[in-house]
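In the laboratory, one determines a bound structure by crystallizing the protein with its ligand and collecting diffraction data. In a computational setting the workflow is compressed into a single prediction: the sequence and the ligand go in, and a structural description comes out. We illustrate the idea with pantoate.
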Amino acid sequence: MQVLHTAAELRAALAGRAGTAFVPTMGNLHAGHISLVELAKQHGQPVVASIFVNPLQFGAGEDFERYPRTLESDCEKLSAAGCDLVFAPDVAEMYPVPQTFTVQPPDSLANDLCGAFRPGHFSGVATVVLKLFNLVQPHVAMFGRKDFQQLLVIREMVRQFNLPIDIVAGDTLREADGLAMSSRNAYLGASERIQAAQLHRELATIAAALQAGERDAEALCAAACRRLKMAGWRVDYVALRDATTLQAPTPASTRLVVLGAAWLGSTRLIDNLEISGSPSTQ
Ligand code: PAF
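The predicted complex, in structure-token form:
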């Protein structure tokens, strides 16, 4: 497996390749990332992973500085998973000049849910992903469903800019107690780690109630928020949305998703559950 740090090296290594399958990451890899590499391998093209902690998608006071940088062990995991090439640029390589051209996702996707609490985040994500797409020129790229809003932003960017790239969604991998795997789980202290699975349980409770015929989604989400707060969480949101548009569900919605974001101490966790069977809601 090649590990390259510059755009020039990457371009030279990819010259003449018919296509690649791409897994963009910020490193500190867990089994969820590796499952995306395995998914990428199914496409029969060389697999390229990137490892880059992108400053553009972190707001002031967020965890850019403390985000774990674990290049060596990440490369071991990627090599064992059969990845062919890792692109691990530094900030100066990705942003040799200030990034004054940026991608602005539509307000409806970028400024709602996580975007409402992390202004500029999805613009930072879309901008770096577009740059990475331009560098790697993949035919297919993998994104986890765990970052559901991000997945929709990327899909819409690909659609609106006519990028010739298939976006493939990988399922969320979970710990035994249901906690969604995330690089940020490493921030949790021992008792927070035990408590952390409550976010998934609350979303599962909402999904189960809707599937059992409960129609008042707002009341279900409000009750979940109350229970989280009583247990010591600081809740950004718990919301039910149309899984295609991320807008409030309408009678025409065929797929729903319940999403949540909340803080345990200084750690912000997100999770979501797609709900099959399109239960009707108020
Ligand atoms: O999901 C992530 O790890 C990041 O947001 C991504 C897509 C690699 C862009 O920095």
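Strands lie at 2-4, 21-25, 47-51, 85-87, 140-144, 166-170, 234-242, 256-264, 267-275. Keep in mind that any predicted model is a hypothesis to be tested, not a measurement.
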